[in-house]
């Protein structure tokens, strides 16, 4: 999804508190000098169970969203058995953590050496592709020593679909145009034990129509190629709740996908897959930062664009925030922007982030919904970073998995 470097397998913080605490305010009272990541395994487990029980097919976790080993094990324990891996590093990570998991190498452009290792060392049998060149690469890399082609491959041809309903586009880099898919689908059908079609509607899809429109393109491609398709993979893009981006209930997405899938010209035994990333892990983590300086409406905090707030800086993503102060401030909220700790002008998060107008240096702020693409995007640029992680028992600042009564009872803030 992102064009920044991900510290794979390194995204796991170096220290994780073994004991749970009630919530963010308890951590702020300790007056930590460095940012502290709060993780909520119960929230990730709840999201996983929701997908496992309610999505009308198979749900596999997109590891790139957050490759924390603790999270991956939590999702496994909650019933997620399949993992969308996009690099050989992700393959190795999940294979090491979960030897019995099913790994699906869903990056459409892979190094031949990565394919070979994935197939022969880690037992990967599912690969995506969007060109004849990639198909030839997969067949070479998985052939036996005597040159015989593999006979146990599931090959998923990625179609290019619109990202018009999503906040972040994934429509330009990967995917074969539906009207150009026929020769690739035909060739993949000849090579594969099982043939799939996959797509990605973009990140943070705000309407179920994103999937139904994409599935119409799938229909056209199947009809044009006249091939038997065994797997339909609707990819990721399932949303979470952020300020100004409150999506419909996920059940509406599932219902729309199921209806469209049922109408496709595929056999009764065809499987329906999805690849949630953000939706499984956004509620898993938040971050406590300290205000080091206030300059008018600008707050200088000790994490930023080169830490967990890459999206807030570079694509203007707004995250929920709350001031951790006891007693609570009674002053009206005011819009602020943030500067991170590095010496770089780009280390700026425009927001606006609504906080009490009396916030001052030394105050602590919780920034919520950072489980997806937060920890995964961290660097140690300029010598700044965070290595303390604490398990907390309170609820995330927003949730698509709690009903209104539960949110009120848990004091969930949906800013």
Topology:
Blueprint: E1 15-16, H1 24-28, E2 36-39, H2 41-54, E3 58-62, H3 69-77, E4 82-85, H4 88-97, E5 102-105, H5 112-120, E6 126-129, H6 132-142, E7 154-158, E8 166-168, H7 182-191, E9 194-198, E10 203-205, H8 209-225, E11 231-233, H9 250-262, E12 271-274, H10 278-281, E13 285-295, E14 298-301, H11 310-314, E15 321-324, E16 333-339, E17 348-356, E18 364-367, E19 388-391, H12 404-409
Parallel strand pairs: 1-19, 2-19, 3-4, 3-12, 4-5, 5-6, 6-7, 7-9, 9-11, 11-12, 14-16
Antiparallel strand pairs: 2-13, 8-10, 13-14, 13-18, 15-18, 16-17
List the main descriptive attributes of the protein structure presented here:
single chain; 415 residues; alpha/beta; Lyase, Ornithine Decarboxylase, Chain A, domain 1; TIM Barrel; 2 domains; nine-stranded mixed beta sheet; eight-stranded parallel beta barrel; 12 helices; 19 strands; disordered N terminus; disordered C terminus
Can you offer a commentary on this structure?
The model is unreliable at 1-14 and 411-415 (pLDDT under 50). The relative contact order is 0.17. The protein has two domains: 15-39 and 283-409, Beta Barrel (Lyase, Ornithine Decarboxylase, Chain A, domain 1); 41-281, TIM Barrel, CATH 3.20.20. Strands 1, 2, 13, 14, 15, 16, 17, 18 and 19 form a nine-stranded mixed beta sheet that branches. The chain is elongated and about 65 Å long. It is an alpha/beta fold. The protein contains twelve helices and 19 strands.
């Amino acid at each position: 999804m992102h064009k920044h470097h991900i510290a794979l397998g390194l995204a796991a913080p170096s220290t994780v508190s073994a004991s749970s605490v009630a919530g963010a305010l308890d951590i702020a009272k300790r007056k930590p000098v460095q940012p502290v990541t709060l993780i909520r395994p119960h929230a990730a487990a709840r999201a996983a169970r929701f997908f496992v029980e309610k999505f009308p097919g198979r749900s596999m976790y997109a590891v790139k969203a957050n490759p924390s080993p603790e999270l991956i094990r939590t999702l496994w324990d909650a019933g997620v058995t399949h993992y969308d891996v996009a690099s050989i590093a992700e393959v190795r990570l999940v294979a090491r953590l979960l030897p019995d998991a099913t790994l699906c190498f869903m990056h459409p452009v892979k190094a031949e050496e990565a394919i070979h290792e994935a197939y022969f060392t880690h037992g990967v049998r599912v690969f995506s592709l969007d060109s004849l060149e990639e198909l030839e690469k997969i067949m070479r890399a998985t052939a036996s020593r005597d040159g015989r082609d593999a006979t146990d491959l599931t090959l998923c041809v990625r179609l290019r679909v619109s990202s018009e309903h999503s906040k972040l586009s994934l429509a330009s880099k990967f995917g074969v145009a539906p009207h150009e898919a026929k020769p690739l689908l035909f060739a993949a059908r000849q090579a594969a034990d099982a043939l799939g079609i996959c797509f990605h509607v973009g990140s943070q899809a705000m309407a179920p129509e994103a999937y139904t429109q994409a599935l119409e393109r799938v229909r056209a491609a199947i009809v044009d190629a006249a091939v038997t398709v065994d797997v339909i993979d609707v990819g990721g893009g399932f949303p979470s709740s952020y300020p100004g981006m409150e999506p419909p209930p996920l059940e509406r997405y599932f219902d729309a996908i199921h209806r469209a899938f049922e109408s496709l010209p595929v056999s009764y035994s065809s499987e329906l897959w999805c690849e949630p990333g953000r939706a499984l892990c956004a509620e898993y983590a938040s971050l406590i930062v300290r205000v080091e300086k206030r300059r008018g409406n600008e707050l200088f905090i000790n994490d930023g664009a080169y830490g967990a707030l890459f999206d807030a800086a570079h694509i203007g993503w707004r995250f929920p925030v709350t001031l951790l102060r006891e007693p609570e401030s009674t002053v009206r909220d005011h819009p602020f922007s943030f500067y991170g700790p590095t010496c770089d002008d780009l280390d700026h998060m425009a927001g606006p982030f609504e906080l009490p107008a009396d916030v001052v240096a030394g105050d602590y702020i919780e920034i919520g919904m950072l489980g997806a693409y937060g920890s995964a995007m961290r660097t140690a640029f300029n010598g700044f970073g965070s290595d303390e992680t604490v398990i907390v028992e309170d609820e995330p600042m927003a949730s698509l998995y709690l009903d209104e009564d539960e949110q009120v009872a848990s004091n969930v803030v949906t800013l």
